[in-house]
Amino acid sequence: MAEAEQEPNAAGGAGQQHRVRVAVDAPQHSGISGPLDYLSKRPLAPGSLLRVPLGKRELLGIVWPNGSNAGEAEYADPAKLRAILAVLEGLTPLSSTWCRLVEFAAAYYQRAVGELALSVLPPQLRELDSPQLQLRLKRMRKWVAEQTAEANQAAPSQPTLSPAQAEVLAQLDALLGEAAGKGAPQPVLLYGVTGSGKTEVYLRAAEHALTQGRQVLVLVPEINLTPQLEARFAERFVGRVLVSLHSGLTPAQRLRNWLTAHEGHADLVLGTRLAVFASMPRLGLIVVDEEHDPSYKQQDGARYSARDLAVYRGHLVKIPVILGSATPSLESWQRANEGRYKRLALPERIGGGAMPRVRLFDMRLMPLSKGVTTALTRPLLEALRLRLERGEQSLIFLNRRGYAPVLHCSECNWKSDCPHCSAWRVFHKGDRTLRCHHCGFSERVPAACPTCGNQDIAPLGRGTERLEEQLQEQLPGARVLRIDADSTKLKGELESHMSAVHAGEVDIVVGTQMITKGHDFRRITFVAAVNPDGALFSSDFRAPERLFALLMQAGGRAGRDAEQAARSEMWVQTWHPEHALYKALAKHDFEDFAKSQLAERESAGLPPFAHLAMLRAEARTPEVAKSFLDAASRWAQALPEAAGVLIYPCIPMSVARIANVERMQMLVEAPSRSALQRLLWLWNPELHALKREHKGLMRWAVDVDPLAI
Ligand SMILES: Nc1ncnc2c1ncn2[C@@H]1O[C@H](COP(=O)(O)OP(=O)(O)OP(=O)(O)O)[C@@H](O)[C@H]1O
Ligand SMILES: [Zn+2]
């Protein structure tokens, strides 16, 4: 255990020296999991940033608070301890609560404390020395002053709350009252249908916190939702300092915004998952919008769930946390069922508008004639024409970008596979490439089949690009706009596309799930999902939950204007109209869907009734990855702590090979969180040791509470 408290020590007779524990920016595979001890000429406040030597390198570190259980600091003979190099002056130390949040996250997600702590700080901090940092602080203060100088504008208008909104806010108030002086208020699950005015509830709750001198953190699942929400918050809180934190910022902006929050100048911080770690000394409220969204889970490095950490942080700081969604995650829904979260509901759309009528269009009734495009059925085209005549907008949702998922030779059966991955390369007609969506490998489309020379190679299946082309052919004159990752690559493209939709310059929007989320479209009366069935039969037990949420959200883009709500419609083209998921969708019945899914999960022993971790291994050959996982499994199964824990045989991941790396995974299932955590903790050092024994192994990682199975 760290003996850091036993200072001061005389180090090599160099005068009085203080021993400091430092969390260093050492990668997970270095095997350093806890803070390290160093010597400093003067005592340093916990949370101070500093530079320290490690081996031959110089790293950024954080003076870590004592008495924490961040893992064991290497006990070292004081005579052998190295001296720190420099302290970053002028910066307020990170708070002990911030350190505890990071420590919890590192322990829970099986990462090194220092690695996680430093990875969630702005990258530029690594490069700056004290004078440079002070310059940045000065600039930041100037920027803050400019923001607040614009304050003398008219007070913004607020809508009158709907009775349901008022009720929700009154209940929130009551929760705060109950918790006052005692502990953390219960986390709130704000369950509100699409267009029910959840954002207005966030705004009022934020206002409440701001008037009490507190800071507010708002998390959104995707960068492209930040500008819209930012605009709504900025409009409401004129004169307040609002900053965003996400990976789309330049390094300089990210540092400035982070400093603004950390030094307590920012009143509101709006960001994606990494913002859950924003240092906010006056934090008084956390909002997690679209809490069910899978984007809250980090998919590499420390695989944390920002939603779950938000709840933990709220508990730690004793502040309210609001998780909002029209289709809550089954984890959160179950916690509300158990009374651990307080469920507050907004059951109706603002203005009393109806939810769009859902029509399940049975594809089996379509004549099976050759050449009929299965996406653009005749009735669908009719429905689109009707909207065109009325001057209303339509939205077509197809969760697959590119022109076609694969190119195919009818002579020899060649398919456009990727030489480096176990996946097809997608045909992109716009730039005439075959592109692998996994490794990025891209080539010009061949003029003829590369194996037999046949000139007649044809696309199989359909992506958004092809759908766009077919719509233009079938509905000449219609203004069709495609919105997906390919059409919004350049900076500003998404914004300009979105404003074209809002301005009514577009008749039909075609897009991937990018367009289904959160946007407050006012002119859309028709939404169609043309090929959603795939997810019904996925081996991933969460696929139905995700599909339901996606379709509800897509449908929620229609009829947001109460006047048009009655005419608004959602169209689902399916080969399985009798499926329970679609039946629940047609009734807009999330509760029924959740109930049946939870019952299934419970009987199958799946989350939220069991706790999972996924151990993944990557190597040049599947044999190496498998032998590593098998050895890991044998070792763990022999532990008494493994009693009751199921360790499944390892299997290849769904895309087994990416960029010539073979990927295997092994599922671990435990009846309780603590049983899982105990096992993982014992396992961790052994996994490091096993990696050294398995020479060809490139990487391994543990994913706690994995989302994709
Ligand atoms: N009390 C109110 N009076 C009038 N208009 C309101 C009120 N509350 C919200 N609105 C408006 O209703 C629309 C829908 O609200 P909002 O976007 O907050 O819904 P939401 O529940 O967040 O929807 P989604 O889940 O689809 O994102 C917005 O245009 C908003 O400005
Ligand atoms: Zn590839």
Automatic annotation (TrEMBL):
One MF term in the entry's GO annotations: hydrolase activity
SUPFAM superfamilies: P-loop containing nucleoside triphosphate hydrolases
PANTHER family (UniProt xref): PRIMOSOMAL PROTEIN N
Keyword Flavoprotein carried by entry: no
Assembly mode: Component of the replication restart primosome.
Biological function: Initiates the restart of stalled replication forks, which reloads the replicative helicase on sites other than the origin of replication. Recognizes and binds to abandoned replication forks and remodels them to uncover a helicase loading site. Promotes assembly of the primosome at these replication forks.
PROSITE patterns: HELICASE_ATP_BIND_1 (PS51192)
Enzyme Commission no: 5.6.2.4
Reaction equation(s) it catalyzes: Couples ATP hydrolysis with the unwinding of duplex DNA by translocating in the 3'-5' direction; ATP + H2O = ADP + phosphate + H(+)
Annotated positions binding Zn(2+) 1: 409, 412, 449, 452
Cross-referenced Pfam families: DEAD (PF00270), Helicase_C (PF00271), PriA_3primeBD (PF17764), PriA_C (PF18074), Zn_ribbon_PriA (PF18319)
Domain of life: Bacteria
Top EC class of this enzyme: isomerase
Cofactor note: Binds 2 zinc ions per subunit.
Binding site for Zn(2+) 2: 418, 421, 436, 439
HAMAP family: PriA
Originating organism: Roseateles oligotrophus
Keyword DNA-binding: yes
InterPro entries, A to Z: DEAD/DEAH_box_helicase_dom, Helicase_ATP-bd, Helicase_C-like, P-loop_NTPase, PriA, PriA_3primeBD, PriA_3primeBD_sf, PriA_C
Keyword terms of this UniProt record: ATP-binding, DNA replication, DNA-binding, Helicase, Hydrolase, Isomerase, Metal-binding, Nucleotide-binding, Primosome, Zinc
Stretches assigned to the Helicase ATP-binding domain: 179-346
Protein known as: Replication restart protein PriA
Family the UniProt entry places it in: Belongs to the helicase family. PriA subfamily.
